Amino acid sequence: MAKTKYAGVYVDKNGQFYYEVYLGKDRITGKKIRKKGRKNQQGKKFTSAQQAHKELIRVKNESLSTNGYADYHMTYGRFMDAVYIPYYETDVEESTFYVRKKTLENMRDRFGHLELREISIADVQQFRTWLLSAKGAGYSQAYASLVFGMFRKSLDMAVEMQFLEANISKRVKAIPKGKAVVPYWTKKDFEKVIAEICIDDFYEHLCFIMLWVYFMTGIRVSEGTALWWDDIDFKNKRLRVHHTLFIRSKNDWTRKNYTKTADGKRIISLDDDTIQILKDWKKRQNEMGIHDFIFSYDGMPMIKSTISRIVERYSTFANVPRIQAKGLRHSHASYLINEFNVSVLILSKRMGHSSPDITLKHYSHMWSGIDETIADVMSGNIQIQTAPKTRINFNGNHAVKK
């Protein structure tokens, strides 16, 4: 028997994965209840430790659900550790859990000492206020809405598992998401930025390539970090966006063969300038022995914090608005709308949205002022000639007689 990275999951000498889990004590006999299994709910043997882990969590949750009110005094902390956090880990993408884990733990630590049934409306209201208050967490409204929503969902599961009769948090007003405003660069801002980059330096050349590709394609940050040279079709001048990169650290990453949404998989046409810029960079990378990742100076992928520092550095040098890395995606949308009056359908396809409605939701404000050209064309188009004499005998607020 050998342990795996999942608690309670093992692999025997024949390479067969199995789980072994403790399910508490029998309420009648007082004996410890343990369950061991090598197959999933459909009767198929596990082919990976992860499969065994998911079945272990399912069995554990099923046991807790069956024995619901047996643990009348369960605390929120124990509920999160034993039930909700393990469930959440198996219910979402690994990258999502990696990002949200700390938030879940913070929620657990805030309410952990309270029994589930002790959490009051006042506790929930104070938490809501703390999330939004500058003296509290000071989160943006969008992030506070996310965190509060996660807390409410955790109590939803407590109700579903029969540890609670009702979700007390539903009696406190939800936090609206609000309108998220993402700063971006205009064409002039971007020109100022690249004017500060010396591409004679290898690392600065990489910075230039990264900023250029994001600005000129509008790809998501994780889509860009996943780009390999195989994704560039120099002959047909196209970029294939079919992967995302989940990075735990510079030496611990996974290149996934899917994007944020199904419609995110797309082919983007590239302009001649971008093609030539990429050709020059590919040649320089080859001289350094780098052949896979486009955004790389050492063969390893670029991590998001590095991208953020690059954007911040050149924002300062160029004295332009500081933006987040994702602001480069918005910059691309602004560039296409304001410079080329691109249609919402084309922009939707290029951005990898599931429908033009999504595009309008995020970028409709960028089309403000676009109708000025229409107004110019409308000028003088209608011939204005009014009647020389009135045909109405007006003597008050009466209907006009035929």
UniProtKB/TrEMBL annotation:
InterPro entries in the record: DNA_brk_join_enz, Integrase-like_cat_sf, Integrase_catalytic, Integrase_recombinase_N, Integrase_SAM-like_N, Tyrosine_recombinase_XerCD
Name all Tyr recombinase domain ranges.
180-379
The record's keywords, sorted A to Z, are: DNA integration, DNA recombination, DNA-binding
A Pfam family matched in the record:
Phage_integrase
Tell me which domain of life the UniProt entry assigns to the organism this sequence originates from: Bacteria
Record flagged with keyword Ribosomal protein: no
> What family does the Swiss-Prot or TrEMBL record give for this protein?
Belongs to the 'phage' integrase family.
Protein known as = Site-specific integrase
To which species is this protein native? Answer: Candidatus Enterococcus murrayae
The taxonomy runs: Bacteria, Bacillati, Bacillota, Bacilli, Lactobacillales
